[in-house]
Each structure stands twice: as structure tokens, then as C-alpha cells.
């Protein structure tokens, strides 16, 4: 259940986003949410907090083709089923100005989520995850390569050596698992799952207009102009 509490006028609003790297709808939803926030004059009131949710904890550590991953995790489905769905997602993403390659590789995302937890402690969780996911769907980044993660981490202001140590160890493992469990307890059956100020939960990829309404619900109408 979502805990309901009063939101003071003008106060900070935390928006928690549960997502996984290879989830296409998470990719689209993330950008729609950012668009809804950015069009408000008080956009700086909102803090997006990245939370972990592994869709396929049993995925192998080694790379596997997108088609192989889909068929393995969706019994009864075929590679053709995935290709049709991917072309549809590509059209949706491209229409919204997002790069989207259908030729992707997948692997277990647990280590990535552990780095996201560290990045969150540094106030860079969403920035880090967003940069990794954007590069992944654009087809220009292998997020399962520790060197690539280090490079992205440093680009958003994180300590690359710290990231390399985390990937090599098992830090933050309990927190990754706890995040997923918390999402389930809040009512999530999958991702994307967005919780606004612990007052309203929004499952699935909502339209920009819907996110805008949710922002207004928890933070009030957008002011007519940005305060100086």
C-alpha cells in the first residue's frame, strides 16, 4: 500500500522510479516523465530517485541475443514474436524522438543495479541509470562491460575506481533485492512503476499528460512563472 501524507506547498517532491535496464517501456516512460517535469516552471522541486527492479533475476551472466533472452524468459513465445514487438516499440520510441535499436544483447542486470545503488547514495542514481539505458537502447553502449560502466559513471561525476570495485564484489546486493520486494509490497507487478511522494503509484508507461496530472496531484498546479 502507498502511504498517504500531506504535501506542503513549494516543498521538495521525491519521485521514485522502479525500472530495469532492458525494459523498453521503462525507457519510454523515463523520458515521458522527464518531459512532464521539465515543462513545469517549478521543475527543480522534483527529485527522481532510481530504484532497482530486476525483471529476470535468472538471466545468465554472459551475453545472449535479445531473441534468445526473450524466448528463454517467455515460454511458448518465438523469436518472431519478439521481432514484431520490437518493431512496434521502435516506432513508438522513434516517434517520441528516442533512438532505439532492435539489435541488442542482454545479460543479468544485477551488477548494474548494485552500481545504481551506489550512484543513488551520491545523488546520481537517476543520471547514471538514464545514461546507461539511453546508450544501451541507442546501440552505442555495452552496459555489461565494466569498463563501459566506469566510463559512464565518471561522465556523471562518480568515482570510476569505486564503481570498478563494486562490480568486482557484492556490495549493495541486499539493497537491490530489497528494492524489488518493496515495489511488490507497494503494489507493483512489474516495471516501470513510478511512485510520487509516496502518495500515488503509477504502473506502466503513462503518457506525458498523465504524468503531468500526477505531478499536479502531489505538488499542486504548476506556478505561472518560475520564481526568481
UniProtKB/TrEMBL annotation:
GO molecular function: oxidoreductase activity
Pfam families registered for this protein in UniProt: DSBA
Signal peptide: none
InterPro entries reported in the protein's UniProt record: DSBA-like_thioredoxin_dom (IPR001853), Thioredoxin-like_sf (IPR036249)
Gene3D superfamilies per the UniProt record, alphabetical: Glutaredoxin
SUPFAM superfamilies given in the database record: Thioredoxin-like
Domain named DSBA-like thioredoxin: residues: 15-215
Full protein name: DsbA family oxidoreductase
Amino acid at each position: 500500500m502507498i502511504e498517504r501524507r500531506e504535501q506542503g506547498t513549494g516543498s521538495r517532491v521525491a519521485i521514485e522510479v522502479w525500472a530495469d535496464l532492458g525494459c523498453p517501456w521503462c525507457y519510454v516512460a523515463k523520458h515521458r516523465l522527464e518531459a512532464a517535469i521539465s515543462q513545469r516552471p517549478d521543475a527543480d522541486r522534483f527529485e527522481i530517485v532510481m530504484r532497482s527492479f530486476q525483471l529476470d533475476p535468472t538471466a545468465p551472466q554472459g551475453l545472449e541475443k535479445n531473441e534468445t533472452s526473450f524466448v528463454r524468459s517467455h515460454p511458448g513465445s518465438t523469436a518472431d514474436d519478439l521481432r514484431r514487438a520490437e518493431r512496434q516499440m521502435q516506432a513508438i520510441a522513434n516517434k517520441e524522438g528516442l533512438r532505439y535499436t532492435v539489435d541488442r544483447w542482454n545479460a543479468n542486470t544485477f551488477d548494474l543495479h548494485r552500481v545504481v545503488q551506489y550512484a543513488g547514495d551520491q545523488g546520481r542514481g537517476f543520471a547514471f541509470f538514464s545514461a546507461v539505458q539511453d546508450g544501451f537502447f541507442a546501440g552505442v553502449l555495452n552496459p555489461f562491460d565494466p569498463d563501459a560502466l566506469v566510463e559512464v559513471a565518471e561522465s556523471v561525476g562518480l568515482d570510476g575506481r569505486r564503481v570498478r570495485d563494486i562490480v568486482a564484489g557484492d556490495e549493495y546486493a541486499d539493497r537491490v533485492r530489497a528494492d524489488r520486494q518493496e515495489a511488490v509490497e507497494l503494489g507493483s507487478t512489474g516495471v516501470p512503476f513510478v511512485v510520487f511522494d509516496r502518495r500515488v503509484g503509477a504502473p506502466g508507461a503513462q503518457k506525458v499528460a498523465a504524468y503531468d496530472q500526477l505531478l499536479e496531484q502531489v505538488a499542486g498546479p504548476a506556478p505561472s512563472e518560475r520564481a526568481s
